[in-house]
Amino acid sequence: MSYPLRSVVGVEATSLRFAAAARALGRGARRAHLVVPGFRSPPRLPGVDRSLRRTESSAMVAIRLRGRPWMAVVSDMVEGIVAANRLEGPAADQARSQLWSSLDADGLLPPPPPAPPVRPTMVPPPVQSSRPRPRASPTGRRDDRRPDTARRPAA
Predict the structure, then answer these.
(1) Edge-first strand listing for the sheet containing 38-40
(2) Mean per-residue pLDDT for 129-134?
(3) In 19-38, which positions are buried (b, 16+ CB within 10 angstroms) versus exposed (e)?
(4) Which of 90, 94, 128, 145 is deepest in the core (most CB within 10 A)?
(5) DSSP 8-state symbol, 12
(6) Alpha-carbon distances of 112 from 18, 60, 115, 121, rounded to whole Å
(7) Where are the alpha helices (DSSP H) in the chain?
(8) 70 CB-contact burial (10 Å; exposed 0-12 / middle 13-18 / buried 19+)
């Protein structure tokens, strides 16, 4: 039984996914008017994850798949195209953006991680005063005065 490429995105890279990514990156590179290098696996040099071999008219990017996460492999493929075209600075950044977009359009990138849960902000309860509140008089005015019982008329 075959599975869609997007359903196995978090696992190790496979040769089928590698081939699909190479096709998608080739289309993206041609749209950006870049030279499309060839891709192969594994590199001929022992102990390296990516190597680039140039000839007079072409370039070959070799990438190790076995034992590596898919995103590391795809990142090496994008950087291989940038290096094969000798891009630097803003031109390299623009090419990277276009190449990653072509991978995303073909469903070869994992979905973005879910947003972190929003923690509710704690609103402190209103501060209770230790003083009793003055009572309202029947007339509606505050009655802060005490009854005038302490006063006696002068004799």
Answers:
(1) 38-40, 59-63, 50-54
(2) 69
(3) ebbbebbbebbeebebebbe
(4) 94
(5) B
(6) 20, 31, 9, 26
(7) 15-31, 70-84, 89-105
(8) buried
pLDDT above 50 for 129: yes
Give CA–CA dist 37/142, Å, rounded: 87
Cis bond leading into 43, ω under 30°?
no
In the structure encoding, which two tokens stand for residue 20, read together?
Answer: 């699909």
* Between 151 and 28, residue with greater pLDDT: 28
Least reliable range by pLDDT among 3-7, 20-24, 82-86, 110-114 = 3-7
- Indicate whether this model's pTM tops 0.70: no
DSSP-derived pairing of the beta strands 50-54 and 59-63 = antiparallel
DSSP state of 32: T
d(C-alpha 148, C-alpha 141), whole Å? 17
The answer to whether 73 and 18 have CB atoms below 8 angstroms apart is yes
Q: Alpha carbon 80 to chain centroid distance?
A: 22
| Residue in the structure block whose two tokens are 């192969």 | 40
Residue with tokens 């075959």: 2
